[in-house]
Design goal:
3 domains; alpha+beta; 461 residues
């Protein structure tokens, strides 16, 4: 499905053409099961890239907040839950949240359960998908297990409930749930209280949240005020600035104009594309949400059509759902980059298997990766008795799986205006209590070659 969608947007993002392809039955050969599995993959990526949000003060009880304030069991009860209750293995389950532990596990808070689910995605420890007749996934199972040790937990994930939970609380979208941060450009400086010649980039986050419902309402107001008169907006910010973390910085990016001029098309937006470099986390969240909406609309179309339920009203609803994606047509440049970023998460799942098996085929190439922390590699070599290829796969995997400010993926432009990906893995060693830092760099073209090589996928056979 990753190849299907990246090819769909390869030359341009044209929502009219996407709708036409759907209506002209060009998508009819797609398999609903594959679309359902891709939805879980996207949901997992949302979780992996939001670990910092899950741990941030005030937001670190999101799952409890959802279960207590947002979860509407009745919404799922009539069809979904009643269908599962007919299966004997679910008769003793409560269906009170997105996840339920199996066996006689001690009772945990939803927040603790969310941590376990996230760990499952980080280590590719989930599966056993339960499909209904339409091809949709009803449930799947997850577990936590360290290499060579027994499983510490096993549970069932209620896919539709889990999907709604993650989308509402981790999409950073004020229309769906909580927008944790807002990023924008403006020539006005709050610090200097005047208009400047250059555009500044602002990042605004809520400070010290105590009641998440209040935060949700307040940040929604911020998003709405951004579309109003700039003077009124900044007056509003100044009046409430004690409630925010406000970061104000230059929008200058060295060699950006070279990069943009080489890639732009007739719809590309100079500033929207630049925002990707200054706020990659927010833009990647927008991209994942876009893909979830498109994937969901195609799923709904095929399920209804395959069951002879696709009347004019339903077809119109689906097309309206796709139409809301039109605002992203100017994101052609960044979407192509983010498809590559998304493919890295797919390879992360393969990396988990390779590292657990302690076997990486000689046919798998790591050409293009540059180790920027050679002292760390030498320590790794003598401690683990493993070579360069294992080190690269481990740092690559950890940067993607942990998703916080120290273990993450970043981007930069080199002197030629070419894109470079940076995979960072910084942590405190549990045994030595000392800081460990591993950094890899690889340019965009070499990374594309790495994630596309057949030898990676042949290793799963």
């Amino acid at each position: 499905m990753l190849e299907f969608y990246s090819n769909l947007y390869k030359d341009e993002i044209n929502i009219t053409k996407v709708k036409d392809k759907l209506s002209s039955e060009e998508f009819d050969d797609l398999n609903v099961k594959n679309l359902s599995l891709f939805r879980i993959f996207l949901t997992g990526v949302f979780l992996l890239t939001n670990k910092e949000t899950m741990e941030e003060e005030g937001f670190n009880n999101l799952a409890d907040f959802y279960s207590n304030k947002k979860f509407d069991k009745n919404k799922f009860n009539n069809k979904y839950i009643q269908k599962l209750k007919k299966d004997p293995k679910f008769k003793n389950f409560n269906f009170n949240s997105f996840y339920e532990e199996k066996g006689n596990a001690k009772k945990n808070t939803p927040t603790r359960l969310l941590e376990r689910v996230r760990n499952s995605f980080a280590h590719s420890q989930y599966g056993n998908f339960n499909f209904d007749v339409s091809g949709s996934i009803l449930t799947f199972e997850s577990y936590n297990q360290e290499l060579g040790k027994p499983k510490t937990s096993e549970g069932v994930i209620y896919e539709p409930i889990f999907y709604e939970f993650v989308e509402r609380l981790f999409s950073n979208n004020s229309n769906l749930g909580i927008a944790y941060r807002q990023g924008f450009f403006d020539e006005y400086s709050i610090k200097q209280n005047k208009k400047l010649k250059e555009k500044l980039f602002y990042s605004i986050k809520y400070k010290n949240p105590k009641k998440l419902l209040d935060v949700e309402k307040f940040l929604s107001n911020i998003a709405k005020n951004m579309n109003k008169d700039k003077k009124d907006f900044f007056d509003y910010i100044r009046k409430n600035q004690k409630k925010f973390y406000i970061e104000e910085k230059s929008s200058f990016i060295e060699n950006y104009d070279i990069f943009f001029d080489e890639r732009k098309n007739n719809k590309s937006d100079y500033w929207y594309t630049k925002k990707f470099f200054l706020d990659i986390k927010d833009e990647f969240s927008n991209f994942i949400l876009h893909m979830e909406i498109l994937n969901g609309c195609i799923m709904e179309y095929l399920i209804n059509k395959n069951n002879n339920l696709l009347d004019n009203k339903k077809n119109k609803e689906i097309l309206i759902g796709i139409e809301q994606l039109r605002e992203d047509e100017s994101s052609y440049i960044t979407f192509n980059i983010m498809f590559l970023y998304l493919k890295c998460f797919n390879v992360m799942n393969i990396s988990n298997k390779l590292l657990n098996d302690c076997r990486i085929s000689k046919n798998i190439s790591v050409k293009g990766f540059k180790i920027k922390t050679w002292i760390d590699y030498i320590k790794y070599f003598f401690k683990e008795k493993k070579g360069k290829k294992f080190y690269i796969f481990e740092k690559f995997r950890d940067a993607l799986a942990h998703g916080d400010k120290d273990r993450c993926v970043e981007i930069k432009l080199d002197k030629k205006g070419e894109l470079v990906f940076i995979f960072s893995d910084k942590y405190i060693d549990k045994k030595t209590k000392k800081e460990t830092l591993g950094i890899l760099e690889i340019n965009e073209k070499e990374l594309e070659n790495f994630v596309s090589q057949e030898a990676l996928y042949n290793s799963l056979i």
